[in-house]
Amino acid sequence: MLTLLSLAASLGGCKHQQAASVSVNGAANGSAQAKPVAVQTQAPVVTAGANGAGIPAGSTSTSNAITQAASVAAPPVSAANASKPKVVVSEKAETLVVAQHPFRFVSHLQRIEGTNEDTVDHWELRGANDRVIYQQSYPVSFQDGQFEDTVSIDAEAFNTQQGGGILIHGMDLPSAPDSGGWVQVFGYKYGRDKYGADESLFGPLAPPISIAGEFLGVEADPSMPSPVKNGAATITVMHDLLKFRLRTGTVDIVYPVLINWITGKLEPRMCNEMTSKGQVQRCSYPVMAEPARSTEVTFVRLYPEPDDGFTAKHVVVQPQSKVEYLEARASVGWGQDANSIAFGVDGDLWLKIRVDGKEGWIHGQEDFDAVGLPLVG
User: Fold this and answer.
1) For residue 267, what pLDDT band results from cuts at 50, 70 and 90?
2) Which one of 151, 160, 299, 363 is least enclosed by Cβ atoms within 10 Å?
């Protein structure tokens, strides 16, 4: 059972977030844990500050750092703050342009006076006339005159083949070693068909994604299918990709999340293939390896296909052997609720390698150890 817990228990103990649990059947390589979202609102109209008019066209980020020393009172803090230091409250704003429309990302910070230590207690994404599209708040607590934990948030505009939007990336400290924080995607539903035409179509495409590894960026989907016919109607397929470096404990895989511009949602990529045991749900993924090779002679069992119904050949691995890591086949479990998305390798992972020119597939920790991929974490 792949249990998706709150980030507070998993990727860094974010006590700011409301916990949520989702389960995905069949995980064998540990839990993938969800990053719940704190107080989230798609808010009504609010009036405040400049509206970012006159920003040039294009999907770019224009830094308009606005720092306002606080005459504004800080949000309430934990009752257990006997050692609460004096804090300075400030506001920072940045203009982000999507489809020639300016948006403002505004973050509210608290800083301990006389230090560089700060934390975000609230942020907002604003549209035309400073209308608040989305906002999120975090409680603040102290211990021994310092923040008990801190939150950092940044935002950037992006532009892809099919659409464009805004990425909000957050990180809580302290956090687990493999935590890459979380990322949330905002964009126009229907992509370029309605690109920028109606701000009411702009909003979050999904809850935040907990990153068990590293967020690599946004790019076009190289395998995007062509429009298909459904009777008299043509179904247009509009996908782009969010790419993540996903930890598995031995080798990392590059995992794509689909941005479906038609539905205005994020989706997992689904693949099926036939094996000697029947149809299984798994996809092929690029791999990223950091091997620690042995200085002793060993061997691996190379299968012609990622299927232990075939007969393996024993191949000797010398300390000086050239070992290449080519691709992985795995099922990735996806868990989603109203607050978070998380994913992780679900079950057996097969790795295609080349040893001194001989290609084949391996699985199981004994063979991974033989090619310098011990289990970590």
Assistant:
1) very high
2) 299
